[in-house]
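To whoever is covering the structure queue this week,

Two jobs came back overnight. Logging them here so there's a record in the thread.

Job A:
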Amino acid sequence: MGFTIDCLGASREVGRSAFLVKTDKKIMLDYGIKIFDPTGKPKFPLEHTKPDMVVISHAHLDHSGCVPSLYRNMKVRWHAPPPTKDICEVLWKDSMKIMGDGLPYRRSHFNKALKYWTPMQYNKPIKTGNTRVELYDAGHICGAAMIDLRYKGKRLLYSGDFKGEETFMHKGARPVEDADVLVMETTYALKDHPPRKETETKLMQEIYETIDNGGNALLPSFALGRTQELIALIRSYDPEIPVFVDGMGRELTRIYLKHPKYIKDPKAFRKAVRSVNIVESIADKKRASNTPCAIIAGAGMMNGGTILNYLFHANSQSKVIFTGYCIEGTNGWLLQNKGYIMQDDQELHVDLPVEYLDLSAHAGRKDIMKFIETANPEKIVLVHGDQPKKFAEELKEEGYDAVAPLPGERIETG
């Protein structure tokens, strides 16, 4: 007997990752929401039976954001490394503040969820029934994990979101040998990222040029992961240029510092954080706007957040530098492609230069292929991507049994 996988989300889409894996137990891998949906409303995982346990790969909302809804009518433990729990608490609170009644849970469910958390560490397996569960460092964000299930001599590996290449914050995920079933993210399965060193050098050139011209180098950044990477990156290249950090990234940076064993070089990162200006007041915001400097602030896709305040106050020598992907229709996408953002249902044209530099925290095609070749699985389930079907066809030509399931599809493995 192998594994049965119910695909409750992230199937031919990015968002609402949720996979119910059945062995002698029912194990939920991730339970997220899809915030940016063409309908304009968030989407949640499909209906399912009660799991015996929940394991969360990492704290990003598309993987964790629906966990509190389980506690409307269930009592089930959810497992994750300590930083994931701390980050989830921040992100879930923020979701309730922003989305309110649009979420399928309330404050009481949020509070209950926190009580039902059980800590897990990397490389320290636990058992539920006859199923062994182990986590490995995914190299994606602080606390991110790949999830390894073993049952009756068979092995299923769920990649979650992973990054094989080393970054300033993380060592990178190691490929895993001999998985029978591989449930694999495909965010960038059809393209490779440019060489990291070239991108870093280009970023620093853009920042230097902007500061030398007397402007703000505006860096719209995801509060989780990208903010911390940019702090470490900039300080690695230059310990002295003025850097200001604003938005939710401040609080999440403190969580990173609280969990040093989950980052690559905690001593260097602590030193980097001490050397930047953490914005705590209106006076700090004014000082940042009036200083030629780099400003790291959310939101990464510019749909709200403190970055908009800096954009509105930026002088003509300033520049907007994106380092992360922006979903079509978001302000970040509009600014890059149309030259304007939407504010209060009005088009606001932005007369500043805009750059995009790829510092993705996801594996590119080369890392994904290396991962597949090392695992050499009997079956590959391709998820968390916009074109997994195309990638599945490519893998079939290479001799792999690869599928790109639809939402609600059940996959039986031998």
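Job B:
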Amino acid sequence: MQRLYDLVRNEAMNTDKWLNDIKTKWEIWYTDDMDGKLVEKGLDDHRHLAVRLATLFPSLISEENLRAHRIRFITSSKHRCVDSIVAFQEGLLNLWKVTEVGPSHKINDELMRFFDNCQKFVEDVENNQTALEEVHLFKASAEMKNLVEATFFLCSYEFAIKSLNSPWCNLFDETDAQVLEYKNDLKQYWKRGYGHDINRKSSCTLFHDLFNRLDQAAHEIRFGHVSEAVTIQVGHAETLLPLLALMGFFRDETALTADNFDVQHGRTFRTSRIVPYAANLLFVLYDCSEGPAAVPPQRDTSELPRYKAPGSTLRYGQRDLQRAAARLQF
């Protein structure tokens, strides 16, 4: 990005207003050491998320459960994930003005970075030069010509982090933005989503852990002793996308390919909506007096609809969960 900025500032010659703004008013704030790190806006997002969830689920995410260590925290080893979970804990500590309980967490890459430990995924997708062929074809297509992706990132980062309408955004019209969005969706579709079957199956370790915890919670509630009321797990977009695909969410009837951009404007698989910054997926176990326990998955604090029946809520009874887990014994 620094090289792009230097190139535009020193060699671009036209008289457009956006170029004059970049040359005279805009200063680059992005540095190489920021790559992969969580900015202050991201820390605030997680602090606020903690408060929102505590408000939504006061009987689960409670001061009592925090003090009794019944809220467990698990994270990927990546520093941005560790920073995220510490910020989440800070949100709870500040909410209840707790000072004597310090933040603690457990690093578990086998769960939160399962894709690194799945040999078939590493061989068939991560290290396979042909696995993202559709992405490479699209990057060479007519739609992608003359588009500078780094410029788009400068535009989007400045808006997301600083809430500014960057002069870099003036280089693009709406169609350009749609093309670059599709290119990113295409990459995630083939590397983390439905493009290859192993993508979704690689998340089975996390899937089993999730429902084993729900089973344990249901068992403990039944016998009057709860050791773990809530588990907060922090990973990556690459953690969440395969899990959502494993459960069948956001699947389009037609696969995303390099040559069908024109017919994919209404696609369901749109990563800017599925995994935005601080994306979250919640599983809440309800004790229903009139039937079996129910688990409505919730994404970004809104209930996920069953994909084939828009508007309905995805609910599983305890036996349904056990059957689902049994089918995933690879």
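Note for Job B: Residues 1 and 273 are 25 Å apart (CA to CA).

Please reply-all if you pick these up so we don't duplicate work.
Q.
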